Amino acid sequence: MTICRHFIHALIFSEIYVLLVLSFFQVIFQSESLFKIGVSKFSQQWKKAMIKFYGYKKCNTCVKAEKFLQDSGVVYEFIDITQKPPSADELAVIVESAGITMNKLFNTSGIQYRELKIREKLAALTKQEILDLLASNGRLIKRPLIVVDEKNATVGFKEDQLRKIWKR
């Protein structure tokens, strides 16, 4: 009987606690709609700060990089680069933040790179055409791409580079 009573008390107190927390946040945000806006803004800011891992599940290099990040406790959002490649604007930021040349974004060992004879076409393409080409076909992009913001990005997997930048 006492176990049952303790359980009921714990249940009541946990419900009261939840109600108090919810009431607290509603008071802070003045109304339910402001509360929802506040939560929405927080989640938007969190997503902006979250690391984006553009990879491909069948790529051994991506699997190694993902394991490294997981073992390091880094939280990231996985994005299948073949289904949703970064936009041309995002790629331009990645080039800048990773400190690489445009050509280093290409997956030169990839089948599509060879089939489309990109190597022969590169010299004739403008920077914008290169970015547009890469943004249109994620299989042409060297992977993984790991992006946190406009200042930090890596292209490919080099454990020492990842350890220096991403391990926290």
Classification by helices and strands: alpha+beta
Q: How many individual helices?
A: 8
Oligomer: single chain
**Distance between the first and last residues' Cα:** 49 Å
Strand order of the largest sheet: 2-1-3-4
Detail the poorly predicted runs: 4-14, 16-25, 31-48
Please indicate the percent range of residues in DSSP E strands (runs of 2 or more). Answer: 5-15%
- Gross morphology is globular
Q: Which radius of gyration do the C-alpha atoms yield? A: 23 Å
Residue share in helix: 55-70%
Mean pLDDT: 78
Give helix and strand order, one letter per element, not per position. HHEHEHHHHEEH
Main sheet attributes: strand count, strand direction, barrel closure: 4 strands, mixed
List keywords for this structure.
168 residues, 4-stranded mixed beta sheet
Task: Summarize the helices and strands and which ones pair or pack.
Layout: H1 2-28, H2 32-49, E1 51-55, H3 60-71, E2 76-80, H4 88-98, H5 111-115, H6 118-121, H7 127-136, E3 145-147, E4 153-155, H8 159-166
Parallel strand pairs: 1-2
Antiparallel strand pairs: 1-3, 3-4
Helix pairs in contact: 4-7
